[in-house]
Design brief:
With 139 residues, the protein is mainly beta. The chain is built from one helix and twelve strands. A hairpin with a 6-residue loop joins β2 and β3. The structure holds thymidine-5'-diphosphate.
Length: 139
């Protein structure tokens, strides 16, 4: 698995009034933030994702509950279980990702490096495998 795919610990300001964590561009995460979205109300057993991006990088945090993020660099696969609101997963460009095993009331925050662009998606797995092979030197 690409060593660029990694869990990043975020600062956690512990306080009897409640904890606080922080994501800042180019500090905790290695890109400038262009977009933030979140996935919620996921029905049981559903899978999200199932695509790769050519340029977009992202950072995924389980703000609430838990889910798995399955990453695949075209050569190896690894499952990352997210269940802490002070830990996130950095996903570089060119990685196939699937999200599943969402717990009830889970909330997935996704911070992205690019604007939404449907053209940036690789939606077919065989196309992704070909892309990963051709770009293995720069991914
Ligand atoms: P998609 O990226 O496929 O979600 P996931 O990877 O979680 O399964 O997006 C689902 C739909 O939402 C798709 O029709 C595109 C739309 N969408 C936007 O319009 N803007 C966005 O920033 C994102 C992430 C998705």
């Amino acid at each position: 698995m690409s060593s660029k795919c990694q869990i990043i610990s975020l600062p956690k300001i512990a306080d009897p009034r409640g904890n606080l964590s922080i994501i800042e561009e180019l500090k905790q995460i290695p890109f400038e933030i262009k977009r933030t979205y979140w996935i919620y109300d996921v029905p049981g057993g559903v899978e999200r994702g199932g695509h790769a991006y050519k340029q977009n990088e992202e950072f995924i945090v389980a703000l609430s509950g838990s889910f798995d993020v399955c990453l695949d660099d075209g050569f190896e696969k690894q499952v990352f279980s997210l269940n802490r609101s002070y830990m996130g997963l950095y996903v570089p460009k060119g990685i196939w990702r699937v999200m599943n095993n969402f717990s009830t009331n889970s909330l997935a925050l996704i911070v992205s490096s690019t604007d939404y662009d449907a053209q940036d998606y690789i939606m077919a797995y065989d196309e992704f495998l070909q892309y990963a092979k051709e770009h293995s030197d720069c991914l």
